[in-house]
Design a protein that fits this description.
heterotrimer; A alpha+beta; B mainly alpha; C mainly alpha; A: alpha+beta; twelve-stranded mixed sheet; four-stranded antiparallel sheet; 18 helices; 20 strands; about 20% strand; globular; C: mainly alpha; two-stranded antiparallel ribbon; about 0% strand
């Protein structure tokens, strides 16, 4: 009521003249014919698939660049640019792919095995400083067997290989790097991929625009003529733009609005969620910086974290609590290790008393101000209040997502609260954060010889029976050292207008838009 | 002659203020080298970085070098993003300028008539009504108003988009419509403030003896009104010009609420990234706008006020 | 006239409070008494008094802990147990509002205190020594200061130095102190211009000449004759600036550069409530917004009433409601 009466007056005073003068009311439908508009929270700092560190922004490069295989909406592996899943040699060091012969790049160049070799050779060349190079170093060579046949040779059996192939890469045409230069890949990758969307234009922090690839090899796809990926950093603004029909699909909706609107059919809004595979919400502590250079202090923080309340009260079940780097529902979850870190204030106080920071400590906790993958602002407040009870002072520092990722990847943070996601392989996060020379190694500053050995060992096996004990050991080591405070696996959830068809939340969280189409143009 | 000296003094002010700004960005607790190179950087690396960019020289020398390269290479590139600051500003500045101009026009369209009406009907009901409204207008925080406006006019009624500025390519009326809420969120305060100023000027002029005499002599009302407007405008112009400059500040806050990719985004991102050259450039641009708008206001005021012209 | 109008940071009051013959009032107490007799003045004083009282008494009021996250009471609507409801993480909004008033008022009042002391000093000095180098230098300095767009600089400077405490020599300045200092400094030129105009008129008055003949020193004249006489009209300006200071503090907190969480502040509460702006939990964003709105109205009403009281020609036509 207050709102209304206030506004009428405010409106009469100034706005009426202008709006009235326009004659036409604003048409709430921002989209014209078959233009799909989606909103993501953070700005892609690059469009280059080999350097993308932001999974929300990955929607952009995944529309342009494709891989040999992909993970479908349900989390299953399936061929994409390959005709089928590869033939794997007996000793599991050779993967042979049959490629599709009906694919062309957006610039018309036909897609062949040479392009695959070129792309992988490029990312593997240390001189090219690809962000994601570290996950590929097990590849010994890529061989072109024929025009549409390619073989990957591993240095040793490498279980996660196929899983990793679905992300952190994208095939670009042979010779394209030399011809166009990296800046084009970074800023204007026009016609460089095989994907459904052709890059049209981009304005930093505002919008990236695509048009339909008319020669896309999956006929009849995509279901739109134009696609606008809008960068809307304010989560309230994302909700507002969805409710006012300015956008059709939004990423990283605030949990509360998601719960409220997912059933709001009357308002023309739908929502759904599913577990995000290979995800983890955690506080990444820098073990080389005080106060996290003391294992007892780290344990105290972990023990003082009430994951159940965070998961149920703040995320309403969209986070599945776990005190170790494995989803609690996964077959490899080490319940005993997790039990040792379960919420227990008394134990937390005991560990704190044993630590060098018994008399209290203060640290800065970074998190994304825009919501990255999911909004952790409330959780940050909760953690601040929980640790205050131990006499630990937390200074909250929200940062723009790109900046947060940069700080964390560079290991400049003291502690950061965020969600991470990777391929669904159980060792991905452990490898990426807690073993040497990986993308996020510096964020934890952690290193453990036995963990490294176990990881290498885990790559050689592929069956639950042999892998199970290794993974359990790894969790036990990490739980004992607590380089991070693991909070739980997250869900992927989105809200969209009911007239969007063929869209569903992706197990990888990044929006999948190839199949999305507008049912009606109203 | 007056004009030349006024410009000179503006320039002098600009030099001093920019030097102050420059000094402030150099007094930072964190060395830019530390920010760019990270905590692992060795002392040698830091020194090298500072040497390369001339950060090890004395402040006045750095300032002189900075000013000297302005005409040639503009603001240069950001240490942090490696992007050209000029490109960044060329993208974001027009957005903000357009919003501020829209705000300013809205302010004039609201404040002048309301102030006149209130002044001419002093102590009668239109005056009372306008005074209540303007009191509310100068007291409401713009960002709260913005949230309310979005809720009512964008989400509930769907008349205007809730966020962003619709590109001109989608039609000028959609474009203008998307400007209304953000502009109104900033303008309301100035409509309130400037209408009060206008009212006060009008009342003062009406109270002058010769106006009262003219009234008493039965001079036509329209003539009196024209005289009043003509004399009430000069002080109004000067304050309005100043308001134009101030609007850039509020635009920073309001752009954030409406997700408008203007200077706000540039400045706030630069702040979280500790991108000092970018902060410096953005603030300098706003300051220049501010000084220019004051200059323009003085000039206009002189043109419309004959007494000043001959002074 | 023009000069003074130009100088007012806030356009509105430009009618230049003091230009008309300033009546010699019997000091501030008289002004206050007459203020309370006007309708608008009374309303303004009541609002301001209420907020000040709430802020002062916060520790003794029967309130919940403003920092306590009651996760089982998230987003409860206003009701008997939480009069104004709870926020997104189950904190009592009334408690946060009352505690938040402290920061808002403190920053609003102290910025103006700094602005006033600086402004009066510069204004009276330059007014008294009118026509000398002192005036030229001081006014030139003010010109430079006045060329600084306040809000943008405040944002940038807090941004540059960060929201943490800053070590300034032996002093440790928390973020709030930084904001007070900054905004206060930037308030100086406006107040200096107004007081300069007023002091100029006073300095030329006969009684000052008479005092000089009596052998009174410059400082004594400035402090005991000019200052008391220009104080009342300056307070018109000051009460309006307090309102603006409160809005600036709220804006800075809104964009995360002001009072840092978990310390409650009105702007910070609004920032937290932003994500709720479109849902049904209207109370979270409404109360802190209203608190700022009403408090600023209170100070503006006091300013309006002061002006009316000080200007004998104007009757009270005030908007009492």
């Amino acid at each position: 009521m207050m709102y209304d009466s206030l506004n009428r007056r405010a409106f009469l005073q100034g706005g009426a003249a202008v709006v009235g003068g326009l004659g036409l009311p604003f048409t709430a439908q921002a989209a014209d014919e078959r233009t799909l508009v989606v909103a993501i929270p953070s700005n892609p700092s690059t469009f280059d698939p080999i350097n993308q560190g932001n999974h929300d922004a990955m929607v952009v490069n995944q529309l342009i660049f494709e891989n040999l295989i992909e993970i479908d909406g349900e989390g299953r592996r399936r061929p994409l640019l390959a005709k089928s899943l590869p033939a794997i040699s007996e000793d599991r060091t050779e993967y042979t792919f049959e490629l599709r012969d009906d694919v062309a790049f957006q610039n018309g160049q036909p897609f062949t095995a040479e392009d695959v070799k070129y792309s992988y050779d490029y990312i593997l060349d240390p001189a090219n400083k690809a962000l994601r190079r570290s996950v590929w170093t097990n590849i010994e060579s890529v061989e072109v067997l024929s025009r549409h046949q390619v073989r990957f040779k591993m240095k040793a059996p490498f279980r996660p290989f196929l899983d990793y192939m679905t992300k952190y890469m994208g095939i670009f045409p042979a010779g394209s790097r030399e011809k166009y230069g990296n800046e084009i890949f970074q800023q204007r990758p026009e016609g460089l991929g095989t994907g459904p969307g052709i890059f049209v234009s981009a304005r930093s922090n505002d919008v990236v625009e695509f048009r339909r690839n008319p020669h896309y090899w999956r006929k009849d796809l995509p279901g739109w003529d134009r696609l606008r990926v809008r960068i809307v950093s304010e989560e309230a603004a994302r909700i507002a733009s969805l409710m006012s029909k300015s956008v059709h699909i939004i990423g990283a909706p605030p949990v509360r609005d998601y719960l409220r609107l997912r059933q709001a059919k009357a308002q023309g809004i739908t929502g759904a969620s599913r577990p995000a595979l290979g995800s983890m919400m955690l506080m990444i502590h820098n073990t080389r910086k005080p106060p996290f250079d003391d294992p007892d202090f780290r344990k105290a923080v972990s023990l003082a974290t009430d994951r159940k309340t965070i998961a149920e009260k703040i995320f309403n079940g969209l986070v599945e609590p776990s005190a170790v780097p494995a989803p609690a529902s996964a077959w490899w979850y080490n319940a005993k290790a997790a039990e040792d870190l379960a919420f227990n204030l008394e134990k937390a106080k005991a560990h704190l008393a044993k630590s060098r920071y018994a008399s209290g400590a203060e640290f800065e906790l970074l998190y994304s101000s825009q919501g990255y993958l999911l909004d952790v602002a409330d959780a940050a407040l909760f953690i601040q209040a929980s640790l205050a009870r131990l006499g630990i002072k937390v200074k909250l520092q929200p940062l723009e997502t790109g900046q947060l990722i940069e700080q964390v990847f560079g290991g400049n943070q003291t502690s950061a609260l965020m969600a991470v996601i990777g391929p669904s392989d159980p060792t991905f996060i452990i490898q990426g954060i807690y073993t040497p020379n990986q993308v996020m190694t510096r964020s934890s500053g952690y290193s453990n010889e036995r963990l490294n050995a176990l990881l290498t060992e885990s790559f050689r096996v592929d069956d639950e029976k042999s892998l199970g004990p290794i993974l359990a050991d790894m969790q036990a080591i990490l739980a004992a050292d607590s380089p991070s405070t693991w909070i739980g696996a997250v869900h992927s959830f989105n809200l969209w207008r009911s007239n969007v068809q063929g869209f569903e939340p992706n197990t990888g969280i990044t929006l999948r838009l190839t199949d999305a189409a507008l049912a009606d143009l109203r | 002659m007056w004009f030349a000296s006024r410009i000179l003094s503006s320039l002098a002010v600009l030099v001093v203020v920019s030097a102050l700004l420059f000094a402030l960005t150099r007094l930072t607790p964190l060395s830019p080298a530390r920010i760019v190179l990270g905590t692992d950087a060795t002392v040698e690396q830091i020194h090298e970085f500072e040497r390369d960019r001339g950060l090890d020289r004395a402040l006045p020398a750095q300032y002189a070098a900075w000013v000297a390269q302005l005409p040639r290479s503009g603001f240069g590139t950001s240490y942090i993003t490696g992007r050209s600051i000029d490109i960044e500003l060329r993208e974001s500045l027009p957005v903000t300028v357009e919003l501020v101009v829209a705000t300013f026009l809205l302010t004039l369209a609201g404040a002048i008539p309301l102030g006149l009406i209130a002044g001419l009907t002093e102590d009668r009901w239109p005056d009372h009504l306008i005074r209540v409204l303007s009191l509310m207008a100068v007291s409401v925080p713009g960002f709260w108003l913005a949230l309310i406006l979005i809720r009512v006019f964008a989400v509930r009624l769907g008349w205007v988009p809730p966020i962003g500025i619709t590109p001109l390519a989608e039609g000028w009326h959609a474009h203008l419509a998307s400007l209304v809420l953000p502009a109104l969120s900033i303008a309301l305060y100035y409509i309130g403030a400037l209408s009060r100023l206008m009212r006060a000027s009008v009342i003062e002029i009406l109270g002058q003896d010769y106006v009262r005499t003219a009234h008493a002599l039965g001079l036509r009302r329209s003539l009196v009104a024209r005289y009043v407007v003509k004399n009430a405008l000069p002080p109004f112009v000067s304050v309005a010009g100043m308001s134009f400059g101030y609007m850039f500040g509020w635009a920073i806050i309001i752009e954030l609420v409406f997700n408008i990719p203007g200077l706000s985004r540039a400045l706030l991102t630069a702040i979280t990234q500790r991108d000092y050259p970018m902060i410096q450039a953005t603030v300098l641009v706003v300051t220049v706008m501010f000084i220019l708008s004051n200059l323009a206001a003085d000039l206009i005021q002189r043109l419309i006020n004959p007494r000043l012209r001959h002074a | 006239m023009l000069d003074v109008a130009r100088s007012t940071v806030t356009a509105p009051m430009a009618s230049a409070a003091g230009i008309r013959a300033v009546p010699r009032l019997s000091g501030l107490t008289g002004t206050m008494r007459r203020l309370a007799q006007t309708r608008i003045g009374l309303v303004g004083l009541v609002i301001v008094g209420f907020v000040v009282l709430a802020a002062l008494l916060a520790p003794w009021l029967p309130l919940h802990d403003p920092l306590d996250l009651m996760m089982e009471h998230r987003l409860e609507p206003p009701g008997p147990s939480f009069l104004l409801g709870t926020d997104e993480v189950g904190r009592d909004i009334l408690a946060r509002l009352v505690w938040g008033a402290r920061g808002s008022l403190m920053i609003g009042v102290l910025t103006v205190a700094i602005g006033l002391s600086g402004g009066l000093l510069v204004g009276i000095l330059s007014g008294y020594y009118s026509g000398t180098l002192v005036e030229t230098v001081l006014l030139g300095l003010m010109d430079i200061f006045a060329a600084i767009p306040l809000l943008v600089w405040a944002i940038a400077i807090v941004g540059i130095f960060g929201t943490g405490s800053v070590q300034l020599g032996p002093l440790e300045l928390p973020n709030e102190a930084k904001i007070i200092l900054l905004v206060g400094l930037l308030f100086i030129p406006g107040l200096a211009r107004v007081s300069h105009g007023l002091a100029l008129a006073e300095a030329k008055a006969d009684y000052v000449a008479a005092r000089r003949l009596q052998g009174a020193g410059a400082w004594s004249i400035m402090a005991s004759d000019i200052l008391p006489n220009i104080l009342s009209p300056i307070f018109v300006q000051a009460s309006v600036l307090i309102g603006i200071g409160i809005i600036i503090e709220a804006s800075l907190s809104f964009i995360g550069l002001g009072v840092q969480p978990p310390t409650p502040s009105w702007g910070g509460m609004l920032a937290d409530a932003r994500s709720l702006a479109f849902s049904d939990e209207w109370w979270v964003a409404t109360w802190p917004g209203l608190a700022i709105f009403l408090t600023v109205i209170g100070f503006n009403l006091v300013g309006d009433a002061l002006r009316t009281v000080l200007d004998p020609r104007r009757r009270d036509g005030g908007p009492a409601q």
